[in-house]
Amino acid sequence: MRLRDLPSVDELARGVNDPLAVDAARTVLARARGQINAGEDPGDLATRLRAELAAARAPRLRRVLNATGVIVHTNLGRAPLAAAALAQVTDAARGYSNLEYELEAGTRGSRQAHLAGLLQRLTGAESALVVNNNAAAVLLALAALAEGREVLVSRGELIEIGDGFRIPDVLARSGAHLREVGTTNRTRAADYEQAAGPETAVILRVHQSNFRVVGFTEQPRVDELSQVAQSHKLVLVDDLGSGALVEIGDEPTPRASLAAGADLVCFSGDKLLGGPQAGIIAGRSALVERLRRHPLQRALRADKLTIAALEGTLRLALETPDEVPVLRMLREPA
Predict the structure, then answer these.
(1) Domain for residue 68, yes or no?
(2) Which of 76, 142, 168, 183 has CA atoms 20 to 30 A from the CA of 333?
């Protein structure tokens, strides 16, 4: 076939009763021109047009079979939701809801109220709030508590969290100033003690979610960092990453971190927690309130479908955790 043999857009789309036919015909013909110029046969154009129309209507986001052996796979959507969480999403999505309305008082309410009680029971925190992912949770915490001031972070915890996003970059966008302490493989509580000064506001502890440093290593415990923070009147923020609410291997839990002295913990909703993409911040009520009132909170807040899915998941985590798919799969024998 030569270029002069190609039909016009009108000729190719004629007789096809579809509002997308003209655009699809343009795409098919453009592709055919490229193939002819490359010395290839473009094939039957009518068949190509039907295939193009079918592809235009097919969902781009669709289910796949996870045969990777990785249960919480970022590229495959992380945690699959439990049936109860899906049912709650459907119920919230099909009509109006009390997202920001107090039904008993008949007044405006807070969307954070739907999850705070469950998170308090699951983590032992005084208060909690939810944003759209854990990077946002860390960003909000640093912006609200350390803008224009120093944040102490171990050099061994300046990690990249995926797709090129790095902890120093998130910290810089918050308006805080990074102060590195210790070394890549060994950091002690004394390093934080020596680095703390009048411009320091926060000690940030970051979970090494995607790698481990082995061999000649040392990291201070949460209770040791808490003593440093208290002696200098600093806030200790523990970024836990994966968000395991129950015991899973050596993964830290929010309850354990807060009990050891962390002032705030941040963690994901769609990893080991087994819910939707979300960032959860829990800890001292006065600090959580500062975050809630910060202007960034509105830009980063979770929507009603995320809140519905997370509420359904948290309720299962509290009552029947084996009904959360991620937790069930992790506990199955190999």
Answers:
(1) no
(2) 76
